[in-house]
Amino acid sequence: MRPTMTDVAAAAGVGLGTVSRVVNGDPAVSPAMRERVQAAIDATRYRRNELARSIRPGQTSTTLALLLGDLTNPFYARMAKAAVAVAGDAGYAVLLSTADEDPAAEQRAVSELVGRRVAGLMIVPDQGDHAYLAPEVELGTPVVFLDRPATGIEADVVVIDNERGSADAARHLIAHGHHRIGVVVAPSYYTTGRRLRGFRRALREAGDQLDNSLVRHLDVGSAEASAAAVADLLALPDPPTAIFATTGFLSQGAVLAMRGREHEVALVGFDDFPLAELLPVPVTVVAGDAAAMGEQAVRLLLARIAGESGPAHRTVLPTRLIERGSGEIHA
Amino acid sequence: MRPTMTDVAAAAGVGLGTVSRVVNGDPAVSPAMRERVQAAIDATRYRRNELARSIRPGQTSTTLALLLGDLTNPFYARMAKAAVAVAGDAGYAVLLSTADEDPAAEQRAVSELVGRRVAGLMIVPDQGDHAYLAPEVELGTPVVFLDRPATGIEADVVVIDNERGSADAARHLIAHGHHRIGVVVAPSYYTTGRRLRGFRRALREAGDQLDNSLVRHLDVGSAEASAAAVADLLALPDPPTAIFATTGFLSQGAVLAMRGREHEVALVGFDDFPLAELLPVPVTVVAGDAAAMGEQAVRLLLARIAGESGPAHRTVLPTRLIERGSGEIHA
DNA sequence: GCGCCAGCTGGAAAGGTTACCAGGAAACGT
DNA sequence: ACGTTTCCTGGTAACCTTTCCAGCTGGCGC
Questions:
Q1: For the segment A103-121, what is each residue's pLDDT rounded down to a tens digit?
Q2: Which of A's residues 19-78 have CB atoms within 7 A of nucleic strand D?
């Protein structure tokens, strides 16, 4: 159906090897011959078959895989966008796969991707054990974890500085006079745990203390669950003067619950989200650089593909506190 | 490096063909033999090489390609998520590529993808000519366009009903007593043109007329540009009582510009966006079903891959008016 | 002028899989 | 009991590309 090198060779009346050399820009071919073959390539509309190319031994395909939970989360969308861009610049395509936080689905997806002989795997891991990846890594498929490390295997990882970011949030609230702070914590594993820890520690270092009765651990990380928890907190006899939400979705839920009482309660959230500055009361956020995370992951992968074999790298990206004036106590 | 069928055959002491049959679930193999081979597969950790598999004649790879402009746009993110999910269910992986609205980049990306012998292409096309795709389609790679049709080639397309959706928006505003309506139009080609047309026609059908001096065509589709244009409209001696924004980003810019005057001016926007209901004044939107668009595109592609060869399909998905109470005139 | 080297070209093998063909054994019918 | 059919298995070719090797030609040095 599609023209092959053989077709081009026949059209140009040359050998197969010569066509290959021209296609790959091998300098060991005379200008006249190059021109003749190129004409045949154009005439036949030949396009090199990357698949056939990468079944050769030692050859690794020029495709990376990105496996993540939810593309609808703007953080992951930005991450994916950056990863695709950087990979594309290096001549790599990106196979996108989703696992929706389901360990079994993740494992199935990895199996699919490995079957396609991707040159490297980028994974936003869930809390399950990732020892099952060891044979793949051993067989030469490098793996990079994003946003959170994985248990059961040692591999490169790119995370943001959850603790420091949360500490910044805590200090921001303290500086604005808050002592009674409610916290909504998403049911995640690594990131939210770190965020709570960093927040708590910063308070302690400031001579303050987090009131555990004001910390709500949610069963699901949805805005609705957060809204319910925050409403509950605000209904207390002695409600908190500020809320810290550990994820973007939770912040949105908090905004929902604070409707009409925006000026009584301050809100700081982890993860920036679009429109945060347009809300009735602008929300101060701790922003992680999703694009940098995606870029760094690709770079790590490319280095491993190129043969780098040192110990696992751990990249910790800084966060940025974006103050949007939600700190003052108005009540 | 990685175990191959030959390794499995050697381990099990059987022929290559038998291994292939077991791997592919061919029923013409005795249970005893199946078990023996399966044991060897498990022992060697064999995984079928999809690349080698798909270079065979007639065989098409089990990979689809999705080429879009901006993954950061929540509409496209939802679309991509749905497409990946549906494709995955059918055993297809999705190669994600971005073109950032640049015709040259798009063409380069398509070339890359075709080189990887994807079984089908999903493209969110920009305004350039797409005749260059004709040879690919002829050579058996089906193409589906999403969100907007492409010129220069006949292919399946999935769009939303831009005109009817905008007409709904117009009727909504009329029903709430608006006659002086400002419109911000993004510099896009197909969608925004349709939206403006549908909006204008609905007004005319209601015996009203769109004042062209209140229609602002933007050079860029950013929130900032929209904010500037809306601010300009609101600064008129006789400002509009309502704004219609033709895209989600433009709506957000309008919200920005309307700050502090939310209760004087109504806002209706095309495209739903997160947090629209949390804004100072909830924004009524015309929502297209991005997920349905992605799903339908994959389905069309799979049908074509399966051999369907009729004329091009044109799927027009309905929109939904989500009223969030922004219609009343408060001034 | 002859030999040698460099430069260029052609051919063949390999890589992992599938499809097809042939062959062997067992079972069944007569 | 013999022939035939069915069931199962093994081997081989083909897919498209790259790599390696061999061979050829022309040029240059001595």
A1: 899 999 999 999 999 999 9
A2: 19-21, 23-24, 46, 48-49, 52-53, 55-56, 59
